[in-house]
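Q: Sequence in, structure out?
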Amino acid sequence: MIAPDARIVLDTSVLVKLLQGKEAGTAIESRYELGRRSSTPFISIVTVGELRAFSRGRKWGADKLARLGDLLAELVIVDINSQDVLNAFADVSTYLKERGKTVGDNDRWIAATAKVLQATVLTTDRDFEPLHPEMVSCEVVL
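A: Exactly. Output:
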């Protein structure tokens, strides 16, 4: 369990669950107290792009797009155009290559963001496991 005062980076999969407004999203919100943490949850700008592609692919209407906008306004969006994140992306990529492991490009950017912030990635999938715990901490929910 992630400590209440620890920094977290939300993976795109978590935001999708939150936006769906179903039991899984409510459980994540409650368990991790996302709206009441001492440190506002972070997301990578890459996640914003993934969510826009996701919403367009599913032809979301105005109400759901408004919920997306509201949710994004509650989070801290971290740009990848910084030397620290760029260097962390290179570190993550090199680490994986040396071990013969793969992680998708977008997840490597999200991991690099978490590495720089010294945060735990909160996700609903196991995509970050090849990086845990040496490069970045992750916690899988649900």
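The chain has a mean pLDDT of 96.
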